[in-house]
Every structure is written in structure tokens, then in C-alpha cells.
Specification:
alpha/beta, Purple Acid Phosphatase, chain A, domain 2, five-stranded mixed β-sheet, 8 helices, 30% helix, globular
Amino acid sequence: MSTYAIGDVQGCFDELILLLERINFNTATDNLIFTGDLVNRGPDSLKVLEYLYSINGSVINVLGNHDFHLIALTLKNGNIKTKDETLKPILESPNKINLIEWLRHQPLLHIDKETNIIVVHAGIHPHWNIKQAQAYAHEIETIISVNQADDFFSKMYTNESWKKGLEDTERHNAIVNTFTRMRYLTDDGICDFKQKNSPDKVNHLIPWYAYPERRINKNLIVFGHWSTVNYLHDQRVVCLDGGCVWGGQLIAIDLSKPNLPIKVDSLKLI
């Protein structure tokens, strides 16, 4: 039995199937933990969701910002913009309700019981310890899984950064933004959501995982979201976003061997 973590799929269904073949994935014995952003931008978001829903007993997906956006679009039931065209097949699917209900009951944070490895989409704020991170994740998971979640999603689109003393919508948005959008921090721990370049090109900001005195420093943290970082295994973190949707790679690791990535090239290169 193996548990694999897989980076951002973003609708790259064919590459996902190739990766599962490469790791000899067996639904009877193995488990998959995705770093979020299963959907959007790639060609086959509906196929990705339908397949993972069909094997949901073997799958956990820590929610990413594109997953949140899909749920919000579904609950708002409004007109989609050009940038959301790849989500249209999901929104028009007769199985939409089942797929979205499955998605919005997924966690923001997962800790593997065998290895104590933590999986999130973007990261964990360096000021948080494990108990705080779990509590904040549970707080949002509870909100988005209830029938009144549409009010939360209608107020979600802000750039609120985590800091002490936040309440209500500002607090909720800061937690979601941390788990799903964070890359860089300023010296005083404020998230910068604009900068997306790789750390070797940015000098005035600190990657969240390199922040001094990060409180979670014993557990390995696996994350995605940051395609310009690509595969990284350093400083007690592993980044698995190989930018498959941009022509890069889809990356997996066996959690028992986190320093041995398994990669599949994007079919855009063929």
C-alpha cells in the first residue's frame, strides 16, 4: 500500500492518467492526495473531476484557489467570464451537483497518519503552529460545507492577509488566502499576493517556507500552487507544482520516499 501526493493537475487529465500508470496506482490498495487546483486552464477539468469522484474512496484533494473559484461559480449560478471557459463543461454537466458537493467537502489541510507529512495547496503561515493551522482549516471547511456557503463565497475575493485580531469575513478570507494563494511574505509577515516569480528573481520578499522562525519546522510540508518554483525538496518542504498546464510536468511523490519525484511531461510538448 502506498500514498502518493500529486501536484496541481488543472484539467490535465491525460497526463494524470499517464502518471497513475507510471506509479502503478491501484485503487484497491493505494491512496492519492492532491495539492489542489484540480481544475481550470487545462483542457479536461470535467474528466479530472469525474474520474476522481469515481474513485473517491482513494482520493483526498486539499482545496486550491481554482477549486474554490469553481465552487463559487456553481453556487452563484451566474455568467462565466472568458478566463473560466474551461470550467463550463463542469457547470453544464448533469453530474454537476455530485461533483461540486464532493469538492466542497474536501479539506484545506491534510496530515498523513503514517508519515506525519502535511499537505496543503499554497502553504501554512509561518506564525501558525500545527494546532492553529488545523483549527483554521477546520473553521473554513465547516463554513463551505453548509447550505449557507454561498454568502461566504460571494465575499471571498479579497487580498486580505493574515494578522492577529481579524474577525468575520476578513478573518475567513485571510485564512483562505493563506492556504490557497500565499507565496511571498514581507519582513513583518504580510502576504504579497501579486508576485509570482521564482525566488531567485525576487529579492525584496521572503518565500513563506524560508521565513525565519517558521513554527512548523519538524513536519515535512508538501504544497503546490507555485509553478515557478516547480519541484523543490528543501527546508522541510516539497513543492510539486511542475506547471503541467503551462507545458511543464505533472509530479508525484510516494510519501514514504518524498525525495524521489515521479514526473510526466506535459503532452503540450509532443
